[in-house]
Amino acid sequence: MHILYAASEMVPFVKTGGLADVAGALPAALAARGHRVTAVLPLYDGVNRAGLEPGEEFMVPVGTWQVAARPWRSRQKWGDVYLVEQSDYFARPHLYGPPGGEYADNPERFAFFSRAILALCRELRLAPDVLHVNDWQTALVPVYLREPDDGDGLEQSASVLTIHNLAFQGRFDVTAVNVLGLPPRVLGIDGLEYYGDMNYLKGGILYADQVTTVSPTYAREILEPQNGCGLDGVLRARSADLSGIENGIDTELWNPASDPHLAAPFSAARPEGRRANRRLVQRTLGLEEADAPLLGFVGRVTGQKGLDIVLDAMPALLDLGVQLALLGDGDPLLTRRLVEAARFRPGRVGVATGFDEPLARNIYGGSDLFLMPSRFEPCGLAQLIAMRYGAPPVVHRVGGLADTVVAWNDNPDSATGFAFDRPDTAALLAAVAGALEVWKEHKLFARIQRNGMQRDSSWQARASACEAVYEKALEARRTRKIGGALKQAASPRPHGRG
Ligand code: GLC
Questions:
Q1: Model pTM?
Q2: Rounded to an integer, what distance in angstroms lies between the CA atom of residue 15 and that of residue 13?
Q3: Does 214 contact ligand 1 (Cβ within 6 A)?
Q4: Scanning 20, 89, 171, 315, which has its CA 20 to 30 A from the CA of 47?
Protein backbone atom coordinates (compact mmCIF):
# COMPACT_ATOMS: atom_id res chain seq x y z
CA MET A 1 0.00 0.00 0.00
CA HIS A 2 1.10 3.60 -0.49
CA ILE A 3 0.56 5.64 2.66
CA LEU A 4 0.85 9.39 2.81
CA TYR A 5 1.54 10.44 6.39
CA ALA A 6 0.93 14.11 7.19
CA ALA A 7 1.61 15.93 10.42
CA SER A 8 2.45 19.42 11.63
CA GLU A 9 5.65 18.25 13.34
CA MET A 10 8.04 15.35 13.00
CA VAL A 11 11.30 14.15 14.52
CA PRO A 12 14.12 14.78 13.49
CA PHE A 13 12.94 17.98 11.77
CA VAL A 14 10.87 19.80 14.36
CA LYS A 15 9.23 18.92 17.66
CA THR A 16 7.04 20.48 20.33
CA GLY A 17 5.32 17.34 21.62
CA GLY A 18 4.68 13.61 21.36
CA LEU A 19 3.07 13.92 17.92
CA ALA A 20 6.53 14.63 16.50
CA ASP A 21 7.95 11.45 18.05
CA VAL A 22 5.14 9.34 16.65
CA ALA A 23 5.44 10.95 13.21
CA GLY A 24 9.18 10.33 13.30
CA ALA A 25 8.86 6.63 14.05
CA LEU A 26 5.65 5.16 12.64
CA PRO A 27 6.42 5.78 8.92
CA ALA A 28 9.65 3.78 9.20
CA ALA A 29 7.84 0.88 10.87
CA LEU A 30 5.21 0.86 8.11
CA ALA A 31 7.89 0.94 5.44
CA ALA A 32 9.65 -1.98 7.13
CA ARG A 33 6.46 -3.98 6.56
CA GLY A 34 6.75 -3.40 2.83
CA HIS A 35 4.60 -0.32 2.37
CA ARG A 36 5.58 2.74 0.43
CA VAL A 37 5.41 5.71 2.80
CA THR A 38 5.61 9.41 1.93
CA ALA A 39 5.45 12.07 4.64
CA VAL A 40 4.53 15.76 4.45
CA LEU A 41 5.05 18.55 6.97
CA PRO A 42 5.45 22.33 6.91
CA LEU A 43 8.92 23.81 6.45
CA TYR A 44 9.27 26.00 9.52
CA ASP A 45 12.02 28.54 10.10
CA GLY A 46 13.84 26.39 12.61
CA VAL A 47 14.23 23.36 10.32
CA ASN A 48 17.77 22.65 9.20
CA ARG A 49 17.77 22.80 5.39
CA ALA A 50 21.02 20.91 4.89
CA GLY A 51 20.38 17.96 2.62
CA LEU A 52 16.92 19.16 1.54
CA GLU A 53 16.31 19.24 -2.23
CA PRO A 54 14.09 22.04 -3.55
CA GLY A 55 11.29 21.05 -5.93
CA GLU A 56 9.08 22.95 -8.38
CA GLU A 57 6.80 25.68 -7.06
CA PHE A 58 3.10 24.73 -7.05
CA MET A 59 -0.15 26.58 -6.35
CA VAL A 60 -2.46 25.92 -3.43
CA PRO A 61 -6.01 27.25 -3.23
CA VAL A 62 -6.80 29.18 -0.04
CA GLY A 63 -10.31 30.58 0.13
CA THR A 64 -10.94 32.03 -3.32
CA TRP A 65 -7.29 32.80 -4.07
CA GLN A 66 -4.08 30.85 -4.79
CA VAL A 67 -0.90 30.74 -2.78
CA ALA A 68 2.48 29.59 -4.10
CA ALA A 69 4.40 26.93 -2.22
CA ARG A 70 7.52 24.83 -2.74
CA PRO A 71 8.22 21.29 -1.60
CA TRP A 72 11.67 20.45 -0.22
CA ARG A 73 12.47 16.78 -0.30
CA SER A 74 14.38 14.93 2.36
CA ARG A 75 15.25 11.33 1.52
CA GLN A 76 14.96 9.12 4.57
CA LYS A 77 15.95 5.48 4.69
CA TRP A 78 12.27 4.53 4.69
CA GLY A 79 10.97 7.00 2.09
CA ASP A 80 10.56 10.64 1.11
CA VAL A 81 9.57 13.50 3.37
CA TYR A 82 8.27 16.66 1.68
CA LEU A 83 8.56 19.86 3.68
CA VAL A 84 6.21 22.51 2.32
CA GLU A 85 7.76 25.96 2.14
CA GLN A 86 5.44 28.95 2.35
CA SER A 87 7.32 31.68 4.13
CA ASP A 88 4.36 33.97 4.89
CA TYR A 89 2.84 31.18 6.93
CA PHE A 90 5.76 29.23 8.30
CA ALA A 91 8.88 31.39 8.46
CA ARG A 92 8.21 32.29 12.08
CA PRO A 93 9.95 31.60 15.38
CA HIS A 94 7.22 29.25 16.67
CA LEU A 95 5.08 26.50 15.17
CA TYR A 96 1.67 27.49 16.47
CA GLY A 97 2.34 30.69 18.41
CA PRO A 98 4.44 32.16 21.21
CA PRO A 99 4.33 30.30 24.58
CA GLY A 100 0.79 30.39 25.91
CA GLY A 101 -0.55 32.01 22.71
CA GLU A 102 -1.65 31.21 19.17
CA TYR A 103 -0.97 32.96 15.88
CA ALA A 104 -4.14 34.77 14.84
CA ASP A 105 -3.96 33.34 11.33
CA ASN A 106 -3.69 29.69 12.41
CA PRO A 107 -7.01 28.88 10.73
CA GLU A 108 -5.54 30.11 7.46
CA ARG A 109 -2.09 28.55 7.97
CA PHE A 110 -3.43 25.08 8.52
CA ALA A 111 -6.27 25.28 6.00
CA PHE A 112 -3.47 26.10 3.57
CA PHE A 113 -1.32 23.22 4.78
CA SER A 114 -4.15 20.71 4.52
CA ARG A 115 -4.90 21.76 0.96
CA ALA A 116 -1.20 21.88 0.12
CA ILE A 117 -0.97 18.18 0.97
CA LEU A 118 -3.58 17.35 -1.67
CA ALA A 119 -2.18 19.84 -4.19
CA LEU A 120 1.26 18.30 -3.71
CA CYS A 121 -0.12 14.83 -4.43
CA ARG A 122 -1.49 16.13 -7.69
CA GLU A 123 1.71 17.97 -8.49
CA LEU A 124 3.90 14.93 -7.89
CA ARG A 125 1.35 12.51 -9.36
CA LEU A 126 1.10 10.60 -6.11
CA ALA A 127 -2.08 8.61 -5.61
CA PRO A 128 -1.72 7.22 -2.09
CA ASP A 129 -4.10 4.49 -1.02
CA VAL A 130 -4.39 6.06 2.39
CA LEU A 131 -3.85 9.60 3.65
CA HIS A 132 -3.06 9.32 7.35
CA VAL A 133 -3.44 12.70 9.05
CA ASN A 134 -2.91 13.81 12.64
CA ASP A 135 -4.66 16.24 14.99
CA TRP A 136 -6.49 19.44 14.05
CA GLN A 137 -3.63 20.86 11.98
CA THR A 138 -4.23 18.31 9.22
CA ALA A 139 -7.82 17.36 10.10
CA LEU A 140 -9.21 19.22 7.09
CA VAL A 141 -7.50 16.83 4.67
CA PRO A 142 -10.36 14.26 4.85
CA VAL A 143 -12.80 17.13 4.25
CA TYR A 144 -10.95 18.53 1.22
CA LEU A 145 -10.51 15.03 -0.11
CA ARG A 146 -14.24 14.91 -0.73
CA GLU A 147 -15.16 18.53 -1.24
CA PRO A 148 -14.27 21.10 -3.95
CA ASP A 149 -11.82 20.10 -6.62
CA ASP A 150 -8.84 19.03 -4.59
CA GLY A 151 -9.77 15.40 -4.67
CA ASP A 152 -9.06 15.06 -8.40
CA GLY A 153 -6.99 11.98 -8.95
CA LEU A 154 -7.51 10.94 -5.36
CA GLU A 155 -11.01 9.50 -5.70
CA GLN A 156 -9.82 6.09 -4.55
CA SER A 157 -7.80 7.36 -1.62
CA ALA A 158 -9.07 6.71 1.87
CA SER A 159 -8.38 8.87 4.90
CA VAL A 160 -7.47 8.07 8.49
CA LEU A 161 -7.40 10.71 11.23
CA THR A 162 -5.44 10.10 14.43
CA ILE A 163 -6.32 12.16 17.50
CA HIS A 164 -3.29 12.60 19.75
CA ASN A 165 -5.00 14.93 22.19
CA LEU A 166 -8.69 15.81 22.05
CA ALA A 167 -8.08 18.92 24.16
CA PHE A 168 -6.67 20.67 21.07
CA GLN A 169 -9.32 20.99 18.39
CA GLY A 170 -8.51 23.92 16.14
CA ARG A 171 -11.58 25.88 17.15
CA PHE A 172 -11.78 29.27 15.48
CA ASP A 173 -14.05 32.24 15.19
CA VAL A 174 -16.34 31.97 12.20
CA THR A 175 -14.96 35.24 10.78
CA ALA A 176 -12.10 33.16 9.35
CA VAL A 177 -14.51 31.02 7.33
CA ASN A 178 -13.44 32.64 4.04
CA VAL A 179 -10.06 30.95 4.15
CA LEU A 180 -11.69 27.55 3.86
CA GLY A 181 -13.24 27.84 0.42
CA LEU A 182 -15.75 25.16 1.40
CA PRO A 183 -19.40 25.04 0.35
CA PRO A 184 -21.97 26.10 2.97
CA ARG A 185 -23.24 22.57 3.61
CA VAL A 186 -19.82 21.61 4.98
CA LEU A 187 -19.95 24.53 7.36
CA GLY A 188 -23.22 23.58 9.07
CA ILE A 189 -23.99 21.51 12.12
CA ASP A 190 -23.23 18.27 10.25
CA GLY A 191 -19.86 19.67 9.31
CA LEU A 192 -17.40 22.12 10.86
CA GLU A 193 -19.87 24.26 12.80
CA TYR A 194 -19.39 24.06 16.55
CA TYR A 195 -21.33 26.34 18.91
CA GLY A 196 -21.12 29.17 16.41
CA ASP A 197 -17.39 28.60 15.75
CA MET A 198 -15.53 26.42 13.26
CA ASN A 199 -13.92 23.27 14.58
CA TYR A 200 -11.31 21.64 12.32
CA LEU A 201 -11.02 18.46 14.36
CA LYS A 202 -14.77 17.99 14.25
CA GLY A 203 -14.62 18.19 10.45
CA GLY A 204 -11.91 15.55 10.38
CA ILE A 205 -13.81 13.24 12.72
CA LEU A 206 -16.90 13.45 10.54
CA TYR A 207 -15.17 13.05 7.17
CA ALA A 208 -12.32 10.60 7.81
CA ASP A 209 -12.96 7.02 6.73
CA GLN A 210 -11.45 5.82 9.99
CA VAL A 211 -10.62 7.66 13.20
CA THR A 212 -8.02 6.43 15.64
CA THR A 213 -6.59 7.63 18.87
CA VAL A 214 -3.43 6.66 20.66
CA SER A 215 -4.58 4.06 23.18
CA PRO A 216 -7.61 1.75 23.57
CA THR A 217 -8.57 3.18 26.97
CA TYR A 218 -8.48 6.78 25.69
CA ALA A 219 -10.63 5.67 22.74
CA ARG A 220 -13.29 4.63 25.27
CA GLU A 221 -12.80 7.59 27.60
CA ILE A 222 -13.44 10.21 24.92
CA LEU A 223 -16.91 8.79 24.24
CA GLU A 224 -17.97 10.06 27.68
CA PRO A 225 -18.92 13.69 28.36
CA GLN A 226 -16.34 13.87 31.15
CA ASN A 227 -13.40 13.31 28.78
CA GLY A 228 -14.96 14.11 25.43
CA CYS A 229 -13.94 17.80 25.45
CA GLY A 230 -17.32 18.64 23.92
CA LEU A 231 -16.85 16.26 20.98
CA ASP A 232 -18.04 13.07 22.68
CA GLY A 233 -21.36 13.22 20.82
CA VAL A 234 -19.61 13.52 17.47
CA LEU A 235 -17.26 10.70 18.40
CA ARG A 236 -20.14 8.48 19.52
CA ALA A 237 -21.71 9.01 16.12
CA ARG A 238 -18.48 7.63 14.59
CA SER A 239 -17.80 5.01 17.26
CA ALA A 240 -18.11 2.14 14.76
CA ASP A 241 -15.13 3.64 12.91
CA LEU A 242 -13.12 4.68 15.97
CA SER A 243 -10.31 2.61 17.46
CA GLY A 244 -7.38 3.01 19.81
CA ILE A 245 -3.88 1.95 18.81
CA GLU A 246 -1.30 2.24 21.54
CA ASN A 247 1.74 4.33 20.61
CA GLY A 248 5.20 2.86 20.31
CA ILE A 249 8.59 4.55 20.49
CA ASP A 250 11.64 4.50 18.26
CA THR A 251 13.61 1.80 20.07
CA GLU A 252 16.82 2.69 18.25
CA LEU A 253 16.69 6.35 19.27
CA TRP A 254 15.73 5.26 22.78
CA ASN A 255 18.15 2.51 23.64
CA PRO A 256 19.95 2.72 27.00
CA ALA A 257 22.64 0.34 25.76
CA SER A 258 23.80 2.72 23.03
CA ASP A 259 22.47 6.14 24.08
CA PRO A 260 25.40 8.54 23.55
CA HIS A 261 23.91 11.11 25.95
CA LEU A 262 24.01 8.83 28.97
CA ALA A 263 26.89 9.21 31.43
CA ALA A 264 27.02 5.40 31.32
CA PRO A 265 25.08 3.13 29.00
CA PHE A 266 23.40 0.09 30.54
CA SER A 267 21.07 -2.80 29.84
CA ALA A 268 18.67 -5.08 31.68
CA ALA A 269 21.48 -7.60 32.11
CA ARG A 270 24.00 -4.97 33.26
CA PRO A 271 22.10 -2.13 34.96
CA GLU A 272 25.11 -0.80 36.96
CA GLY A 273 25.53 2.20 34.65
CA ARG A 274 22.42 3.76 36.09
CA ARG A 275 24.42 4.95 39.13
CA ALA A 276 26.63 7.20 36.99
CA ASN A 277 23.58 8.65 35.23
CA ARG A 278 22.01 9.43 38.55
CA ARG A 279 25.18 11.20 39.73
CA LEU A 280 25.18 13.28 36.56
CA VAL A 281 21.56 14.32 37.20
CA GLN A 282 22.36 15.17 40.81
CA ARG A 283 25.38 17.23 39.82
CA THR A 284 23.57 19.03 36.98
CA LEU A 285 20.65 19.98 39.20
CA GLY A 286 22.62 20.72 42.37
CA LEU A 287 21.20 17.79 44.31
CA GLU A 288 23.05 16.17 47.20
CA GLU A 289 25.06 13.22 45.97
CA ALA A 290 23.24 10.89 48.30
CA ASP A 291 21.66 7.49 47.74
CA ALA A 292 18.17 8.77 48.49
CA PRO A 293 15.55 7.50 46.03
CA LEU A 294 15.43 9.84 43.04
CA LEU A 295 12.03 10.69 41.52
CA GLY A 296 12.17 12.02 37.96
CA PHE A 297 9.84 13.94 35.65
CA VAL A 298 10.38 14.97 32.04
CA GLY A 299 7.63 16.60 30.03
CA ARG A 300 5.34 19.51 29.39
CA VAL A 301 4.67 21.54 32.51
CA THR A 302 0.88 21.78 32.28
CA GLY A 303 -2.22 20.99 34.28
CA GLN A 304 -2.74 17.94 32.04
CA LYS A 305 0.53 16.45 33.27
CA GLY A 306 -0.42 17.05 36.94
CA LEU A 307 2.63 19.10 37.94
CA ASP A 308 0.44 21.11 40.31
CA ILE A 309 -0.31 17.84 42.12
CA VAL A 310 3.42 17.19 42.47
CA LEU A 311 3.89 20.74 43.81
CA ASP A 312 1.14 20.34 46.38
CA ALA A 313 2.54 16.97 47.44
CA MET A 314 6.12 18.20 47.59
CA PRO A 315 6.58 18.77 51.35
CA ALA A 316 5.12 15.35 52.14
CA LEU A 317 7.13 13.73 49.32
CA LEU A 318 10.34 15.17 50.76
CA ASP A 319 9.34 13.82 54.19
CA LEU A 320 9.50 10.38 52.59
CA GLY A 321 13.20 11.01 52.04
CA VAL A 322 13.24 11.35 48.26
CA GLN A 323 14.99 13.72 45.88
CA LEU A 324 13.16 15.23 42.90
CA ALA A 325 14.62 15.88 39.44
CA LEU A 326 12.18 17.74 37.21
CA LEU A 327 12.74 18.90 33.64
CA GLY A 328 10.18 20.63 31.49
CA ASP A 329 8.67 23.72 30.06
CA GLY A 330 5.20 25.02 29.39
CA ASP A 331 2.75 26.93 31.55
CA PRO A 332 4.73 29.99 32.79
CA LEU A 333 3.00 30.15 36.18
CA LEU A 334 3.47 26.45 36.98
CA THR A 335 7.07 26.59 35.76
CA ARG A 336 7.76 29.51 38.06
CA ARG A 337 6.27 27.62 41.03
CA LEU A 338 8.57 24.69 40.27
CA VAL A 339 11.64 26.91 40.08
CA GLU A 340 10.63 28.50 43.41
CA ALA A 341 10.22 25.07 44.97
CA ALA A 342 13.76 24.14 43.91
CA ARG A 343 15.13 27.37 45.34
CA PHE A 344 13.33 26.71 48.61
CA ARG A 345 14.65 23.14 48.95
CA PRO A 346 18.15 23.20 47.42
CA GLY A 347 19.87 19.84 47.33
CA ARG A 348 16.55 18.00 47.50
CA VAL A 349 14.57 19.42 44.57
CA GLY A 350 16.24 20.11 41.23
CA VAL A 351 14.41 21.85 38.39
CA ALA A 352 15.60 22.64 34.89
CA THR A 353 13.45 24.45 32.36
CA GLY A 354 13.65 24.35 28.59
CA PHE A 355 14.87 21.64 26.28
CA ASP A 356 17.87 19.62 27.46
CA GLU A 357 18.17 16.30 25.65
CA PRO A 358 21.19 14.94 27.59
CA LEU A 359 19.65 15.81 30.96
CA ALA A 360 16.31 14.31 29.91
CA ARG A 361 17.97 11.04 28.96
CA ASN A 362 19.98 10.85 32.17
CA ILE A 363 16.83 11.49 34.21
CA TYR A 364 15.21 8.52 32.45
CA GLY A 365 18.36 6.47 32.86
CA GLY A 366 19.19 7.51 36.44
CA SER A 367 15.93 8.01 38.38
CA ASP A 368 14.55 5.29 40.62
CA LEU A 369 10.93 6.19 39.89
CA PHE A 370 9.35 8.31 37.17
CA LEU A 371 6.31 10.46 38.06
CA MET A 372 3.33 10.74 35.69
CA PRO A 373 0.31 11.99 37.61
CA SER A 374 -1.44 13.14 34.39
CA ARG A 375 -5.09 14.13 34.81
CA PHE A 376 -5.71 12.62 31.38
CA GLU A 377 -3.24 11.02 29.01
CA PRO A 378 -4.13 9.95 25.47
CA CYS A 379 -1.11 7.64 25.42
CA GLY A 380 1.99 9.16 26.92
CA LEU A 381 5.47 8.36 25.65
CA ALA A 382 7.56 9.32 28.68
CA GLN A 383 6.37 6.28 30.66
CA LEU A 384 7.41 4.02 27.77
CA ILE A 385 10.88 5.56 27.75
CA ALA A 386 11.10 5.46 31.55
CA MET A 387 10.27 1.73 31.56
CA ARG A 388 12.85 1.07 28.87
CA TYR A 389 15.43 3.06 30.83
CA GLY A 390 14.81 1.23 34.11
CA ALA A 391 12.85 3.93 35.97
CA PRO A 392 9.51 2.31 36.90
CA PRO A 393 6.75 4.89 36.36
CA VAL A 394 4.26 5.93 39.04
CA VAL A 395 1.15 6.81 37.04
CA HIS A 396 -2.44 7.92 37.34
CA ARG A 397 -4.39 5.01 35.90
CA VAL A 398 -5.97 6.77 32.89
CA GLY A 399 -5.79 6.60 29.10
CA GLY A 400 -2.58 5.16 27.73
CA LEU A 401 -1.01 5.06 31.19
CA ALA A 402 -3.58 2.44 32.20
CA ASP A 403 -2.86 0.47 29.02
CA THR A 404 0.92 0.50 29.07
CA VAL A 405 1.98 0.19 32.72
CA VAL A 406 1.38 -3.07 34.60
CA ALA A 407 0.85 -1.95 38.19
CA TRP A 408 2.56 -3.68 41.10
CA ASN A 409 -0.74 -3.94 42.99
CA ASP A 410 -2.43 -5.66 40.08
CA ASN A 411 0.25 -8.13 39.19
CA PRO A 412 3.49 -8.26 41.19
CA ASP A 413 5.10 -10.83 38.87
CA SER A 414 4.79 -8.91 35.64
CA ALA A 415 4.64 -5.39 37.14
CA THR A 416 6.49 -2.62 35.31
CA GLY A 417 5.44 0.26 37.57
CA PHE A 418 2.95 1.64 40.08
CA ALA A 419 -0.50 3.17 39.61
CA PHE A 420 -3.06 5.18 41.54
CA ASP A 421 -6.69 5.91 40.82
CA ARG A 422 -7.34 9.57 41.59
CA PRO A 423 -5.36 12.55 40.32
CA ASP A 424 -4.80 14.10 43.75
CA THR A 425 -2.09 14.63 46.31
CA ALA A 426 -3.18 11.90 48.72
CA ALA A 427 -3.35 9.24 46.02
CA LEU A 428 0.03 10.24 44.56
CA LEU A 429 1.64 10.20 48.01
CA ALA A 430 0.21 6.81 48.87
CA ALA A 431 1.47 5.39 45.57
CA VAL A 432 4.97 6.81 46.03
CA ALA A 433 5.10 5.56 49.64
CA GLY A 434 4.05 2.09 48.44
CA ALA A 435 6.63 2.16 45.65
CA LEU A 436 9.37 3.12 48.12
CA GLU A 437 8.52 0.09 50.26
CA VAL A 438 9.15 -2.08 47.21
CA TRP A 439 12.28 -0.06 46.31
CA LYS A 440 13.79 -1.14 49.64
CA GLU A 441 13.41 -4.79 48.62
CA HIS A 442 16.20 -4.77 46.09
CA LYS A 443 15.34 -8.04 44.40
CA LEU A 444 11.67 -7.20 43.98
CA PHE A 445 12.43 -3.76 42.66
CA ALA A 446 15.05 -5.05 40.24
CA ARG A 447 12.46 -7.41 38.78
CA ILE A 448 10.07 -4.52 38.14
CA GLN A 449 12.89 -2.61 36.46
CA ARG A 450 13.79 -5.63 34.35
CA ASN A 451 10.18 -6.25 33.31
CA GLY A 452 9.93 -2.65 32.15
CA MET A 453 13.25 -2.73 30.30
CA GLN A 454 12.25 -5.89 28.47
CA ARG A 455 8.81 -4.62 27.47
CA ASP A 456 8.43 -4.39 23.69
CA SER A 457 7.38 -0.77 23.11
CA SER A 458 8.51 -0.75 19.48
CA TRP A 459 6.36 0.47 16.61
CA GLN A 460 7.15 -2.78 14.84
CA ALA A 461 4.86 -4.48 17.34
CA ARG A 462 2.04 -2.06 16.52
CA ALA A 463 2.28 -1.30 12.81
CA SER A 464 0.05 -4.24 11.94
CA ALA A 465 -2.79 -2.65 13.93
CA CYS A 466 -2.38 0.45 11.75
CA GLU A 467 -2.51 -1.70 8.65
CA ALA A 468 -5.81 -3.20 9.79
CA VAL A 469 -7.24 0.31 10.16
CA TYR A 470 -5.98 1.26 6.69
CA GLU A 471 -7.73 -1.82 5.27
CA LYS A 472 -10.97 -0.81 6.96
CA ALA A 473 -10.63 2.73 5.63
CA LEU A 474 -10.10 1.42 2.10
CA GLU A 475 -13.08 -0.86 2.46
CA ALA A 476 -15.21 2.09 3.57
CA ARG A 477 -13.96 4.03 0.58
CA ARG A 478 -14.75 1.22 -1.83
CA THR A 479 -18.25 0.69 -0.54
CA ARG A 480 -18.68 4.42 0.08
CA LYS A 481 -19.87 3.55 3.51
CA ILE A 482 -19.65 6.65 5.63
CA GLY A 483 -20.05 7.43 9.31
CA GLY A 484 -23.45 7.92 10.89
CA ALA A 485 -23.26 11.58 11.80
CA LEU A 486 -22.46 12.93 8.39
CA LYS A 487 -25.22 11.60 6.21
CA GLN A 488 -26.18 15.07 5.15
CA ALA A 489 -22.83 16.78 5.22
CA ALA A 490 -21.00 14.16 3.24
CA SER A 491 -23.65 12.34 1.30
CA PRO A 492 -22.06 10.88 -1.81
CA ARG A 493 -22.13 12.98 -4.94
CA PRO A 494 -24.13 11.49 -7.87
CA HIS A 495 -20.94 10.13 -9.32
CA GLY A 496 -17.22 10.64 -9.22
CA ARG A 497 -16.23 11.10 -5.66
CA GLY A 498 -18.21 10.33 -2.53
C1 GLC B 1 -0.03 13.99 22.79
C2 GLC B 1 -0.65 13.31 24.00
C3 GLC B 1 0.20 12.13 24.49
C4 GLC B 1 0.55 11.23 23.31
C5 GLC B 1 1.22 12.02 22.21
C6 GLC B 1 1.58 11.20 21.00
O7 GLC B 1 1.11 14.70 23.18
O8 GLC B 1 -0.86 14.24 25.06
O9 GLC B 1 -0.51 11.39 25.46
O10 GLC B 1 1.42 10.20 23.74
O11 GLC B 1 0.35 13.05 21.78
O12 GLC B 1 0.49 10.53 20.48
A1: 0.94
A2: 7
A3: yes
A4: 171
